[in-house]
Amino acid sequence: MDELDSAIVRELQQDARQTNRSLAQKLGVAPSTCLERVRLLHRRGVVRGYHADIDPAALNRPVEAFVSVQLRPPSRQVIEGFKAAMFALPEVLAVYVVAGEQDFLVHVSVPSLDTLHSFLIDRLTQRREVTSFRSQIIYDSARKHVVAPLD
Amino acid sequence: MDELDSAIVRELQQDARQTNRSLAQKLGVAPSTCLERVRLLHRRGVVRGYHADIDPAALNRPVEAFVSVQLRPPSRQVIEGFKAAMFALPEVLAVYVVAGEQDFLVHVSVPSLDTLHSFLIDRLTQRREVTSFRSQIIYDSARKHVVAPLD
DNA sequence: AAGCCGTGGCGAATAGTGTTCGGAACCAGC
DNA sequence: GCTGGTTCCGAACACTATTCGCCACGGCTT
Predict the structure, then answer these.
(1) What is the nearest nucleotide to A37, using C1' and CA?
(2) Which of A15, A96, A140, B37 has the lowest CB atom count within 10 Å?
(3) Could you tell me the pTM of the whole model?
């Protein structure tokens, strides 16, 4: 993970579809060298994949929210089961198992507030391991696509 | 946004680097057709970009957390200023302006618990608009890369 | 110091790919 | 049935990915 690798990672985070040639040119190395580095980053698991970023509105999902959930009991089995169940739901974008008063943070995106309400009462209230939950509508958000190494 | 567009969006979310030819073959259309559709999705803003997914551990950021922050006063100016200030910090992955008791949810990733602590006391406690905050360490997470349209 | 060897980068060659563009097919509306 | 618009197609061409033999460099041993 030298300077060249970091630069490749940075560039591919910014634009994963740029050609290997332009990438090589930007970094001042031969295309063949660049290609080999990219493949190594893949094999080492540094690069986990390439994904298109899609506007949620185009997918009819303009409303986003975080739902904090508390479970009982917070055993491995309950946690794993709940995590898998949430992740399988189409409304769910991401699932986070966290420390603190709440055990879970579930990131959801839905077509409307009605849909969100339905999600809460049909998919959460239903489950017996859920003791309480609280939802936070997302008014505005900003996510980074390029993350630099720290230290 | 017909069936073909949806299929393209699905495929490009899964693998943004696949060739236009293989994409066209999977969907049963000519490469030229496929290319034109992809460009249109771009121009319409449906596809916002293509990004490599990088292992946080490789960037020396194995510890992740959500920090909920409450601001005073929750005016537009304070919110916008805080949002911009957080987003500019290298530790921050994403910023969410939310409804509820807390006003902000800040997703951070750092090299260690020490670094997280430093972040909290140096970057948050410092700011006078921050009245309180609470951090939730992320034990485990799962994020979807392919999101389907709802309804 | 000389020789050896592993590593990593390079560049030419080839197979494969993106991109363009003229034409064909389809569908409304009149 | 004609017209205008839209969409898709496929061949052609420029460009790109990928391979592979070669070379330079740096660390070892002798």
Answers:
(1) C8
(2) A140
(3) 0.94
Residues 62-101 of A with CB under 8 A from B: 65-66, 83, 87, 90-100
Place of tokens 């591919």: A12
Give the contacts of B107 (CB within 8 A, at least 6 positions apart): B64, B65, B66, B92, B93, B94, B95, B96
* Residue pLDDT, tens place only, B20-57: 999 999 999 999 999 999 999 999 999 999 999 999 99
Cβ contact A105:A92 at 8 Å: no
pLDDT tens-digit map of B111-122: 999 999 999 999
Listed as ranges, the nucleotides of chain D within 7 A of a protein C-beta are 7-11, 15-20
Q: Do residues B110 and B116 make contact, with C-beta atoms less than 8 angstroms apart?
A: yes
Task: Count how many residues are written for chain A.
Answer: 151
- Measure the CA–CA gap between B11 and B51, rounded to whole angstroms: 14
CA distance B1 to A11: 30
SS3 track for chain B: CCHHHHHHHHHHHHCCCCCHHHHHHHHCCCHHHHHHHHHHHHHCCCEEEEEEEECHHHHCCCEEEEEEEEECCCCHHHHHHHHHHHHHCCCEEEEEEECCCCCEEEEEEECCHHHHHHHHHHHHCCCCCEEEEEEEEEEEEEECCCCCCCC
